[in-house]
Design a protein that fits this description.
By secondary structure, the chain is mainly alpha-helical. It has 2 domains: 34 residues, no CATH class; 131 residues, no CATH class. The longest helix has 36 residues. The mean pLDDT is 80.
Length: 196
């Protein structure tokens, strides 16, 4: 093992003990070095500009979206009204003939089905928008929710109606209300998204 004499003048480490010694690291004459300069060329230490905060939810033109949903409601209401009117016209012809007795499968007025179709379309538009805000795959969830509601609206009247004719007519009308909603609301939403 080598012995180190701190007073040995040949040892470069003894310079600090000599009078007037000033460390290079703290020398006043030494230029100031910015510690970040040594990392300037290193891509790992590059400061990236601050990114703008991303907006939550889709960038939707509200006028276009609301207009599309309202028109979907109009189409759905008209389709429900038309189908209910056709069913009632067929039933009146059958009742006039008297061959199958007197029956009335449409339990409600045509206007009632039109209003229900319109309101269901508005509710579906609100559901689509909320799913855009809070779910990772909103269109999938929308299709599943609306599809299951349509299935329930078709099956329940068939099972619970006292007369099979009323159950069939109501199931058909519910299906007519559901199909335009399932097809048009997502289409109106995507057409209303503003591209960057």
């Amino acid at each position: 093992m080598s012995y180190h004499d701190p007073r040995d003048p040949r040892d470069p480490r003894t310079a600090r003990y000599e009078p007037g010694y000033e460390s290079q690291a703290y020398s006043r004459s030494a230029p100031y070095n910015d510690p970040t300069e040594q990392y300037a060329g290193d891509p790992r230490y590059r400061s990236e500009p601050a990114r703008p905060r991303q907006r939550l939810g889709p960038n939707i033109n509200p006028t276009m979206f609301v207009g599309g949903v309202v028109m979907t409601g109009v189409v759905t209401g008209l389709a429900a009204w038309l189908v209910a009117w056709v069913i009632r016209a067929i039933v009146e012809r059958v009742n006039e003939a008297g061959k199958f007795g007197v029956w009335n499968p449409v339990a409600r007025d045509e206007i009632w089905f039109a209003v229900v179709g319109f309101l269901c379309a508005l509710a579906a538009g609100a559901l689509w928008y909320v799913l855009q805000l809070v779910t990772p795959s909103p269109d999938q969830f929308f299709r599943w929710i609306v599809g299951l509601l349509i299935a329930a609206a078709v099956i329940v009247p068939l099972v619970l109606s006292a007369e099979i004719s009323v159950g069939i007519a109501t199931a058909v009308l519910h299906l007519v209300i559901g199909i335009p909603i399932l097809a048009l609301v997502p289409a109106m939403g995507h057409k209303s998204i503003q591209r960057a």
